[in-house]
């Protein structure tokens, strides 16, 4: 809708009130438009406005993929470094669709930021059971960021086993070996 596009333009320019006004005008014409409701929910989430829940509920009710609504809000909160605020949204993602494991990886990362490593490990373990290369690669990156090089090495080896021609994975594995002072393994990884 034109109101959504206009609101998104205002939001990109940092004109939050104008964005909100545009989304509200759009809702006057289409009160159940999930995109307009979601856009307002995101604004109200950042402003810690109580109107968040009503727009979030409408967006979820009418969205073709409610999981993406929760995931998007969680990502916004992570971008704002609001890790405690992201946690419930990632949990909701896993409630809705336990098989979409990128939420498990992200929840583990949030829990690490909240100094809850044992709980994070449960979600990392859950995500590591997949054979989805993008999830495994992201998980290796998250684990690497927290200096668990041995675990990252094992995940990267799994990715290489699943898709041997990924040069970037070989390079990341070599870097992980270097971090562990396994220089011979690092060189042999790059020779393959």
Describe this structure in words.
With 192 residues, this protein is an all-alpha fold. The protein contains twelve helices and no strands. The protein has helices spanning 2-12, 16-29, 34-46, 52-62, 66-79, 83-96, 102-113, 117-128, 133-145, 149-162, 167-179, 183-191. The longest helix is centred in the N-terminal third of the chain and has 14 residues, at 16-29. The mean pLDDT is 87.
Helical/strand content category: mainly alpha
Shape: elongated
The SSE order reads HHHHHHHHHHHH
In terms of quaternary structure, the protein is single chain
Give the percentage of residues in beta strands: under 5%
List the total number of helices.
12
Count the strands?
0
Radius of gyration: 20 Å
Low-confidence stretches: none
Largest sheet: none
Give the mean pLDDT: 87
**Proportion of helical residues:** over 70%
């Amino acid at each position: 809708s034109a109101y959504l596009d206009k609101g998104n333009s205002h939001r990109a320019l940092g004109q939050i009130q104008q964005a909100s006004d545009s989304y509200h005008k759009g809702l006057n014409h289409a009160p159940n438009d999930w995109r307009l409701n979601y856009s307002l929910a995101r604004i109200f989430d950042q402003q810690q406005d109580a109107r968040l829940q009503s727009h979030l509920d409408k967006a979820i009710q009418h969205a073709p993929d409610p999981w993406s609504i929760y995931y998007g809000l969680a990502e916004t909160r992570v971008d704002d470094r609001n890790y405690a605020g992201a946690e419930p949204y990632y949990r909701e993602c896993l409630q809705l669709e336990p098989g979409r494991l990128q939420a498990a990886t992200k929840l583990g990362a949030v829990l690490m930021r909240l100094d809850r490593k044992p709980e994070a490990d449960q979600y990392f373990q859950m995500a590591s059971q997949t054979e989805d290369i993008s999830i495994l690669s992201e998980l290796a990156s998250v684990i690497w960021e927290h200096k668990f090089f041995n675990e990252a090495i094992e995940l990267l080896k799994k990715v290489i086993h699943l898709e041997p021609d990924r040069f970037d994975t070989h390079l990341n594995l070599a870097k992980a070996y270097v971090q562990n002072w396994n220089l011979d393994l690092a060189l042999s990884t790059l020779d393959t």
